[in-house]
Each structure stands twice: as C-alpha cells, then as structure tokens.
Amino acid sequence: MSTALTAHARAWRPTARELLPLLVAGALVLTAIAYPLSSGSARDVVSWAIVVLGSVLSVAHAGLSRGARTAAGVLALVVAAAVAFESVGLATGFPYGSYDYADVLGPTLLGVPFLVPLAWLMMAWPSWLLGGHLARTTRPTRRRFVRVAWAAAVFAAWDVVLDPQMVQAGYWTWASPSPGLPGIDTVPLTNLAGWLVAGAVLMTVLDVLVTRTAVPDAPRIGNAAPLLVLGWMTLGGALAHAGWLGLPGSAAWGAALAVPVLVVLAVQHRRAGAGTG
C-alpha cells in the first residue's frame, strides 16, 4: 500500500515547468488578499503588484504551454488591442462610454496608463483558457465559435467585479454612470456592452493566433494556475467587495455571473464520470 501511495504522489508531483506558474499564481492570490486590508499609497502598490503578477503569469503560462511564439504573440496582441480600444474609448466614448483615468496610474501611451494593457493581459489569457474548457463538449464544427463566445463573456464578467472596485479606488471616473446594473451605481451599462464587444474581437483574434503559433509538440502543462487566478479574482473579489470594501452590488453580480460557469463545468464533470463508469 505504501509503495502504491508513494508512486501516486510522485505521479502528481509538479515539474519545474509546472511549478513556476503556480508560484506566480500563489503570490498573486496572497497579494490580492492584501488589497482590502491596505489603504492609500500602499493600496496603489498592491494594485500594481497584482496586475504585474497577473500579466507575467499569462505570458509565462502561454510560453510554457504552447511555445515562445505564442507567448510573444499574446503579449503583442493583447497590449495592442488594449491600447487601441482604450485610446478610442477615451477620445470618443465608444464602445464603453465617457470616462477619464486618474493621474495616480502613472505614465500613459495615447492617454492609456501602462497599467491598463497589463490588466488586459492578466484577464485575457485565463478567460480564453476557461472558454476552451467550457466549449470542450461542443460539437467540433461549433467549438471555436462557442469557445470565443464563452471567453468574451468571461472577460466581460470579470470587469463587472473589477470596475466598481477601481472606481472606488479613484483610478478612473465615469461621466455618466447611469443607468447601470442593479446594485452598481458607479459604472454604466455601456461599459459592459463595450467589454463584450472588445472581448469578442480580442478572443476571436487570440484564438486564431494560438492556433497558428502554438508548437504542436510543446510540453503541455495544466491550466490550474491561470484558472486559479481567474477564480480568485472574481469569487475572491466578490467576497472582498461584500466583506471589506462596501460594494455589495458588485459582490452579488460576481457570485451570480459565476453560477453558469460552475453549472457547465459540473455537468461536464458528471458526463465525463458517467462515460468512464
């Protein structure tokens, strides 16, 4: 018995390739826990640390799981998309609505703070990965469309939790925050619509990019690290909003938007178990 248990433990021991993303994800989660417990300039430092760790995790995981070309492509594509959408949004109000960034976010490119493309990187890659999980039981002819649709929806839903928190921190303000989602009076509905549009475009191109650049025989690693970060930043963020940040509306929306994802994953797991039983 002990020999069998030892062999099983060795089989589950993460390799150095797998350990790096997990360590970065762990550091990010611990840093995120510090956010509601900090204030003032210390909270600004925590915000930067979260975003930097999240963007490093996305690029590192893309490279370790699919090769250096994919990692470089993800970095270039997401940063370019973020600057393009955000600069147009600042100049025209499309597709999010009219808003302004605070000076506290530091240096900018075309009016877009450097922190913002890094935040997109943190959000985009885990959203695309989760979209793939949610679409895996779909018929092959429809799988790419469903994967992109799920990824764009997850990408937008993440911002439903994130945006009220950033407005509360004073990082940006909306010219006309109404009408908004019930319970959220600081962020307009146009922002959610804009994130769905941006997400659909970004995830479509990202899907093509990964398909064309991924190394077929690249050493595969699991998606645990980026999905852990996605789960913590949404559900953990909702908990922080309810318990410490005084944002019950976004907390409720974060929990509610997680339900369809959890239901689909549970159904898939049940079907997989029935298929092997």
TrEMBL record:
<feature type="transmembrane region" description="Helical">
    <location>
        <begin position="20"/>
        <end position="39"/>
    </location>
</feature>
<keyword id="KW-0472">Membrane</keyword>
<feature type="transmembrane region" description="Helical">
    <location>
        <begin position="250"/>
        <end position="267"/>
    </location>
</feature>
<protein>
    <submittedName>
        <fullName>Putative membrane protein</fullName>
    </submittedName>
</protein>
<feature type="transmembrane region" description="Helical">
    <location>
        <begin position="148"/>
        <end position="172"/>
    </location>
</feature>
<dbReference type="InterPro" id="IPR007354">
    <property type="entry name" value="CruF-like"/>
</dbReference>
<feature type="transmembrane region" description="Helical">
    <location>
        <begin position="71"/>
        <end position="94"/>
    </location>
</feature>
<feature type="transmembrane region" description="Helical">
    <location>
        <begin position="114"/>
        <end position="136"/>
    </location>
</feature>
<dbReference type="Pfam" id="PF04240">
    <property type="entry name" value="Caroten_synth"/>
</dbReference>
<keyword id="KW-1133">Transmembrane helix</keyword>
<keyword id="KW-0812">Transmembrane</keyword>
<feature type="transmembrane region" description="Helical">
    <location>
        <begin position="222"/>
        <end position="244"/>
    </location>
</feature>
<feature type="transmembrane region" description="Helical">
    <location>
        <begin position="45"/>
        <end position="64"/>
    </location>
</feature>
<feature type="transmembrane region" description="Helical">
    <location>
        <begin position="192"/>
        <end position="210"/>
    </location>
</feature>
